[in-house]
Specification:
The complex is a heterodimer of chains A (268) and B (255). Chain A is an alpha/beta fold and 268 residues long. Chain A is built from eight helices and nine strands. Classes of the chains: A alpha/beta (268), B mainly alpha (255).
């Protein structure tokens, strides 16, 4: 059971922020001649080390800008870290928000094959899973309609079905568990729980501490690019509530008080 | 190297799917569909023939075939390099979310254009029979310039795709460069009748067209043109692969 699927060692991610985005020759040449190309170093992640075992469900908590999405992108293999190393095993499937990556002109059926191919599956495998995907997404009557005519709920359902039916080893969920109507949401949460029984490893990012508690068994807290805590989910969630949520609430209260004192700012 | 090969094997179905998608979507929702691949060169050749025979007084009967050979090859080069150049940016949504080998995008664009190009060669063969230019044993030589053209387009496409990620201007600059290449490729005039010959020396497309025409009109390959176009195509592929691999990890920060 304790096989490591993801191992992250001293991971660091540096971005060079150009003070102004330069993407054409003219600006670049002018700035270059004037020696105005300055970079501002920004470490989105600093010295992160942890490992995830097979079947573990890791929640990633943190305020906006803490580096959660950057971390997920590095794990998904999209970003290369500036420092440190990362080892992953098995098939990592990110669940994209609202069908990003679908081709609008392609029909639902064609998109299933395209999307499957993007995730690196061979054709036979997609053929095998095709019926299950269509059935689970409840899009049987619309499967030959171009995706651009789908509603956003339909797109999300299709994306969710493809990602979860194909038996991933590691599933990356980035604040996406609120797709479709209440009925489909229930179904998708059940689907995720079924995957848990099969021993899938999950990385889950959410701002809802309750959801993390329900789905995960371990959690980490990221703060300004640094790993502050790593442990069992309840412990971490309590800590997070205490340290961050309360702090935010306290700030909000202060603001409210200020507002009351200063009626001029009320109409803002 | 082995890793690259393994990765390619894993994603070859994606390459196939993307190539298929490009071809399928190109003509979807048009009434004539894939027939446009054939119809488009026929129509442009008619226009060019009319312009250059009626207005300029070119009396050669096989002139339409001459135009067609040049235009088909140039149109492929222009189309595939343009698509490859834009491929990284137009697939940015995907690249930002899921890992796939990035060269798949320019490669699939060049391949899909190549397939429609090969289909459009049917028009050329039809025109050859209409204008009574019957193929000789040299017709099989045409495989060589056609392969060179594919390699050259892929190489140039990779270079452009890399540049276009960092500099949007490339898309406009390349349009101008393509115009220059078109006018110096001797598509609708005879190169021998032009004063400054040096201008053709530097144009790889011209040399590829020369050998393609030799095969169609029944003469052996021109060795000098063959050498120049071979050097150009492999050099561009080498440089293309090199810059693409060196810069591909930075793509995501710029799209």
């Amino acid at each position: 059971m304790s096989k490591e699927v993801i191992k992250v060692n001293n991971l660091g991610m540096r971005f060079n922020l150009m003070e102004k985005k330069v993407d054409n020759f003219k600006e670049y040449a002018i700035k270059f001649l004037k020696r105005e190309i300055r970079y501002q170093e920004f470490w989105a992640l600093k010295d992160i080390s942890f490992s995830v075992n097979e079947g573990e469900r890791l929640g990633i908590l943190g305020l906006n800008g803490a580096g959660k999405s950057t971390l997920l992108k590095i794990i998904a293999g999209v970003l290369k870290p500036s420092e440190g190393s990362i080892l992953t095993k098995g098939k990592i499937v990110p669940l994209l928000e609202l069908g990003a990556g679908f081709d609008g002109q392609y029909t639902g059926a064609e998109n299933i094959y395209l999307y499957g191919a993007v995730l690196g599956y061979p054709k036979d495998f997609i053929n095998e899973k095709y019926d299950e995907i269509v059935e689970f997404s409840e899009l049987k009557d619309f499967i030959n309609v171009p995706v651009k005519n789908y509603s956003s709920g339909m797109k999300a359902r299709l994306g969710f079905s493809i990602a979860t039916v194909m038996d991933p080893d590691v599933l990356i969920l980035d604040e996406v568990l609120s797709v479709g109507d209440a009925k489909f949401r229930k179904k998708s949460e059940k689907r995720i729980l079924d995957l848990f029984d099969k021993g899938v490893t999950v990385l889950f990012v959410s701002h809802s501490v309750e959801q993390v508690r329900r789905i995960c068994n371990t959690a980490v807290i990221l703060d300004k690019g640094e790993l502050v805590a790593h442990g069992p989910v309840d412990e971490i969630c309590d800590l997070y509530n205490e340290k961050y949520i309360e702090e935010v609430k306290a700030k909000a209260k202060k603001k409210k008080k200020k507002k009351k004192k200063d009626p001029a700012s009320e109409d803002k | 190297m082995e890793r690259v090969f393994k990765n390619f094997k894993k994603y070859r179905y994606l390459l196939f799917e993307l190539t298929k998608k490009n071809i399928k979507l190109k003509y979807r929702r048009s009434y004539l569909g894939i027939f446009w691949t054939l119809l488009e060169p026929i129509l442009t050749t008619i226009v060019l023939t009319l312009v250059f025979t009626k207005f300029r007084g070119n009396s050669d009967v096989s002139f339409p075939v001459y135009i067609l050979t040049g235009r088909l090859l140039y149109a492929f080069f222009a189309g595939s390099t343009k698509m490859a150049m834009k491929s990284i940016r137009s697939n940015s949504g995907m690249i930002k979310k899921v890992y796939v080998p990035k060269y798949i995008y320019p490669l699939s664009n060049v391949l899909s254009t190549y397939i429609t190009f090969l289909i459009s060669l049917v028009v050329l063969f039809a025109a050859m029979f209409i204008f009574k230019i019957y193929p000789s044993k040299y017709i099989f030589n045409m495989v060589i310039p056609l392969l060179q053209l594919l390699i050259l387009s892929l190489g140039v496409g990779l270079i452009l795709a890399t540049l276009a990620v960092f500099f949007r201007d490339m898309e406009y600059l390349w349009g101008v460069a393509l115009m220059m290449i078109m006018y110096t490729s001797a598509i609708f005039y005879d190169a021998a009748k032009v004063g400054s010959q040096w201008i053709f020396k530097y144009n790889p497309i011209y040399h590829i067209i020369v050998n393609f025409r030799n095969s169609v009109f029944g003469s052996p390959l021109d060795m000098e043109a063959l050498l120049i176009s071979t050097i150009y195509s492999f050099a561009s592929l080498f440089i293309g692969v090199l810059v693409f691999y060196k810069k591909q990890d930075k793509f995501i920060l710029n799209i």
